[in-house]
Structures are given as structure tokens and as C-alpha cells.
Amino acid sequence: MKYRFSIKQKQWMITIHVLSVVCWLGGAICMFVLGSYMLMSGNGEQLYYTLDNMHLIDVVLIRYTALVALVSGIALSIWTQWGLFKHYWIVIKLILTVFLILFGIKFMGNWLSTLIQGADQMRIVALTDAGFLTTSYSLLGGAIANIAALVFMTAISYLKPFGKIKKRGERNEKQ
Length: 175
Prior knowledge:
Elements: H1 7-38, H2 44-78, H3 88-122, H4 130-159, H5 168-174
């Protein structure tokens, strides 16, 4: 017999999953708000410390909560009736979650590090540097993409659209 969560285990895992997604979404919103604020900095110290706070939010509210969301989502899929590859909405959430985490590791973390380094070296003059501004806008776009994807994933978690994934035998029988 396949292992399944008990009702209490499932409730706790859903709680962990929802809280991790809320933290991740809150962190992404904070990154967008602080990123917008950073572009209006009045002096070099404000610019640097805003970026430094964005780094703190990235580490505390985004990185680890995204991983908790991924692991708890996989656990909920595997050890409940939903299954990891039975429904399109679960597969879409899995793909988007992995994509957002990899995008964050590959691009957003590097962009933020580049901006912090630029602000530390150039201070307020950084806001006149084309490369600094381009990277800033890329980071803001990444925050918007995270927000949009997380809202979309939340919506499909409740709406459960697209139906079940049909097995090969089921598809061939209907043809």
C-alpha cells in the first residue's frame, strides 16, 4: 500500500506550503517596492542601504521559502490523492516553481549582487550609469515576473483548471 498523509499531516503540510508561498510572494512584493524606491534614492547611502535591505529580503523571505514551497508542494502531491503528474495544474505549478527558483539563482541574485557592488563603488552616481539602470530594471522585471507567477499559481491551486492528464491508454481508447 502506498504511503498517504493522515488528515492532520496533510493539514500541517498545507499550512507550511501556504505560509512559504505567502512569504515568497511578500518577499517578491518587497523587492519590487524597494527596487522602485531605490531608483528614487536621494543620496549614495540611501541607495546602498536600500539594495542591502533587498539582499536581506532575498535571503530571508525568498530563497529558503521558495525551496520550502517546492519541497512541501512535491510532498503534498506525492502523499495525497492529487499525485505529481495526474493533473495539469500541478505540473504547471511544479514547472513554474522550478523555473522561478532557477531564474532567481541564475539571474536575480547576480543582478542584485552587481547592483550592490555598483552602489558601494559609485554611490549616487550609479543612478546615472546606463548599466546600473539596465540591471535595476531587469531586477524589477524579475520581481514582477515572480509576483505574476505566484499569483497565477495561487489561482490555479484554487480553481484547478485544465483537468486531469490522461494516460496513454486512455487517449488511444477514445480515438
